[in-house]
Amino acid sequence: MPKVTVFDMAGKNVGEMELSDSVFAIKPNTAAMHAMVISYLANRRQGTQSTLTRAEVRGGGRKPWRQKGTGHARQGSTRAPHWRHGGVALGPKPRSYRFSLNKKYRRLAIKSAFSSKVAGGEFIIVDNITTDEFKTKNMIAMLTALNAEGKALIVTPAADIKVIKSAANIPGVKTSGVNALSVYDILNCGKLVIAKEAVQKLEEVYAQ
User: Measured between alpha carbons, how far is 22 from 152 in angstroms, rounded to an integer?
Assistant: First the structure.
């Protein structure tokens, strides 16, 4: 079992924690992580883009000239795609980009993401992440003490409004409850700062 140092919010070493091999020490599956990131980004797309076809563009009901005898190519409408102000041929229409992966693959992806962070020394455990007031400087002080400036993901056992609001204005810093973690957020951060209780909850869910 890998051992990771546990810090307090002031950056002081307060002990060690053994992590589950089946969650935090597997061989990362790059394909699974890639698939989860693509799925996450695709599912975020609104898919509301739309263009007008020749049937939807206003006007163009009258034939512009007679069929024969003008020397021009025959035309049926001024709203055909090759006309100025005409409709768009094969343009985008509202659609869903969503796709899902099976549960086993999703679990493999998130365990691979955690394992890659632990192996890279980017997994920081804090005994308790909390703040008594809405103070951005409290979160900045914690990240500075933990050497986690820049892009960081702060993970708490549950959504903590004071932690969320206190970290909201720090560039590159994102917060998440343990139940809302995504592979994209884990891989996209430089340092993963996680509460000890949140680690225990992850092991309860994914160590099975």
Answer: 24
Closest CA to 153 of 170, 131, 132: 170
Share of residues in the chain with pLDDT > 90 (%): 85
Q: What is the mean pLDDT of residues 117-138?
A: 92
pLDDT of residue 208: 67
Task: Give the predicted TM-score (pTM) of the model.
Answer: 0.83
**What sign for the dihedral angle of Cα 144, 161, 195, 121?**
negative
Q: DSSP assignment of the chain, as one string?
A: --EEEEE-TTS-EEEEEEPPHHHHSSPP-HHHHHHHHHHHHHHH---------TTTSS---S-SS-SSSSSSPP-S-TTSTTSTT-PPTT------------HHHHHHHHHHHHHHHHHTT-EEEES----SS--HHHHHHHHHHTT--SSEEEEESS--HHHHHHHTTSTTEEEEEGGG--HHHHHH-SEEEEEHHHHHHHHHHH--
